[in-house]
Amino acid sequence: SCGGEEKKEKKNEAQEVNDNNENEGVAIPESDDIDFHLPSPLQIAYIFKNSGLEYTPGLTNDPSGADQYTTKYQQLLNFGVYSADLAYCVENGKSQDAKNYLTSVKSLAEKIGMNSVFDNQGLLERFDKNIANKDSIEQILIDVHEKTEMYLEDNELKYFATIKFAGAWIEGMYLGSQHALTNKNDDLGMMLIEQLGILSNLVKGL
What's the CA gap between 112 and 148, in Å, rounded? Predict the structure, then answer.
């Protein structure tokens, strides 16, 4: 009388999806209601860069390691990690490194099933053509982010975006904190502290 049957039916449907091997390691929620905004990796990189974050070689995740992530959870998480590394390289003018990370992001997107985000738009060709133009490269990253979010929403996979963002946020905080440990920069320190305000939303989403 209180609608219990409908809840049970929804739970069973979620369990069926969770049993699918394609979603190994990813828990499927009973509701897609995610009522908060999480910034893109590019936004975080831009904020840190404007606060004095400088490029440090060797801090980012090895872009050649994309194939080692075999579960859906690992792939989503490291899609976010590589997205943060990509934004970090773009904001610091490391064009060739950025291209390597874009290739890794594209590879993981294909493993996750998001081929359509990168197909039929000549993404790497656009990147090469505009590699010397930071504004154009940033716009390409914005387009990729928007297409990714749209794909997840259209396919009722919006909660995957939270896992992806978790990887990007943790990587961004790592890059920022490592720089802050070795350089006295009050502005960057304040930005790191402000970023902690996102943590409660991230935990809520996860």
Answer: 11
Query: Model-level pTM?
Result: 0.78
d(CA 202, CA 78): 16
Answer with the residue of higher pLDDT: 10 or 133.
133
Candidate from 10-19, 135-144, 152-161, 173-182 with smallest mean pLDDT: 10-19
pLDDT in tens, 149-196: 888 888 878 778 889 999 999 999 999 989 888 888 888 888 889 888
Q: How far apart are alpha carbons 85 and 92 in whole angstroms? A: 11
Q: How far is it, in rounded angstroms, from Cα 204 to Cα 162?
A: 9
Phi-psi region of 120 (alpha: psi -120 to 50; beta: other; left: phi over 0): left
Cα 181 to Cα 79: distance, rounded to the nearest angstrom: 26
Q: What is the rounded distance in angstroms from the CA atom of residue 133 to the CA atom of residue 128?
A: 10
Q: What is the 3-state secondary structure (H, E, C) of the chain?
A: CCCHHHHHHHHHHHHHHHCCHHHCCCCCCCCCCCCCCCCCHHHHHHHHHHCCCCCCCCCCCCHHHHHHCCCHHHHHHHHHHHHHHHHHHHHCCCHHHHHHHHHHHHHHHHHHCCHHHHCCCCHHHHHHHCCCCHHHHHHHHHHHHHHHHHHHHHCCCCCHHHHHHHHHHHHHHHHHHHHHHHCCCHHHHHHHHHHHHHHHHHHHHC
The pLDDT of residue 13 is: 43
Report the alpha-carbon distance of residue 196 to residue 48 in Å, rounded: 13
